[in-house]
Amino acid sequence: MTQAVESLAARRHVLDLDDFSRSEIEAVLDNAAAMKEVLQRDIRKVPALRGKSIVTLFLEASTRTRVSFEQAGKILSADVINVTGGGSSTEKGESLYNTALTLQAMNADVIVIRHPHSGAPHYLARHLAPSIINAGDGCHAHPTQALLDLYTIREKLGRIDGVTVAIVGDILYSRVARSNLWGLTKMGANVVLCAPPTLLPPDFIDGARMDETHPFASVRIETKVELALEGADVVLALRIQKERQKAGHLPSLREYSRMYGITSSRLEEASPGALVMHPGPMNEGVEIDPEVAHGARSVIEDQVTNGVAVRMALLYGLPSPARAGR
Amino acid sequence: MTPNRSILTNRSVLNSDQFRRALSRIAHEILERNGGAGEIVLIGIHTRGAPLARRLSRLIGEFEGLSPPVGTLDVGLYRDDLASGAKPLMRPSHVPGSIEGKVAVLVDDVLYTGRTIRAAMDALTDFGRPKQIQLAALVDRGHRELPIRPDYVGKNLPTSRDEEVRVHTSETDGLDEVVLVTRTPR
Question: With an 8 Å Cβ cutoff, are A37 and B94 in contact?
Fold first, then answer.
């Protein structure tokens, strides 16, 4: 090539969106658009990652994220090996570090990890040579979910800047909400968080972020869902886990559903043509009405398809381990 | 390029008139070789090949009354140097209709090592099996590293490896021009 080409930043790990710049997010979304074209071909296979090994290490339940990474890696011609907690040496009490060390010794180029403990991917990134991708760690971060949400918003609405996004649900425990907060605010969206006060992070209640320089200073908090949905261009519903009721955060799921469930009539408060999103898995009838989840405004299935394209873009963008100085 | 600074000199090797005439000639040659425009699909390679392919389609339309369909191809996923260097930004590829049994003419701005064309042939055959693949390049600067030769060339330009050929098109840069950039050590 004679012309200088614009290129992706050389990023070794994907741990959260807090260390992504706006232009880097845009570059990933642009490349994801090119990957989506590959998904629509008759022959869905390109040679970009031939000879590379990707290990998915999922120590917490998952369907779509794990399958999505596997699909993304295979379309790019990488070898994908899946390791889960059950049936692996984790059951025999092997530590996370030793499990990951074994995977490294088997020449894994990329380890995609989901772990119930916040920070587990960061820990591996500090100590191991392969690239680490966080596929969800505890209540902390789920950057690839946030990127696919950003991609879906941009694809459907044409922009993210200036779009109002209402995130409704279990904000306190949601890694999806946390990563989306970073991604959406960096991309210039107006974010509204809505939850019962017991499911909002204390930071957002006690005013710690009232300082203008705080990255989330512009985020609005609502405890009434009708007010949160008013004028929203995107409604992102989060899953309510049954455990929250046991822990005393909610009187009952039925009460949550009555007060905060996304229903057709509540959706009328949102902008005409507002998108309805959900990271899955859904508890239909709790945080979202089936009629809305499968209705005309729902882009929940598009999110799943776009997830493969976004993960392809991320896997493609990682530098080769040789260059990373193994 | 900070360690050894060098002086850059730009020399225009095709002005806008020469640029236009070279494309017209290529359009005529494509028609002559293929006995018309009926079976032709023009595939521009991102970035500068894409506007050139559209331009050729328009010219062929003016000469024959039939503009061949135009596609664009991003070869990023098929490159043989992905293991080294930063990964380029990609654009979605688009191949119009079926290329099965058609004559696919790959269009690129500068033909150099031939590695981009190798990648483009791999990429194209993932979309189907054309009857024939031909290659048009606005500039052939030599230094091939693979057994690849062009079928249509706008200008043969002998260069040294440390020179750079820059193609500007009115669509992407506001001006049709080919510039040879030479580095002389300071």
Answer: yes
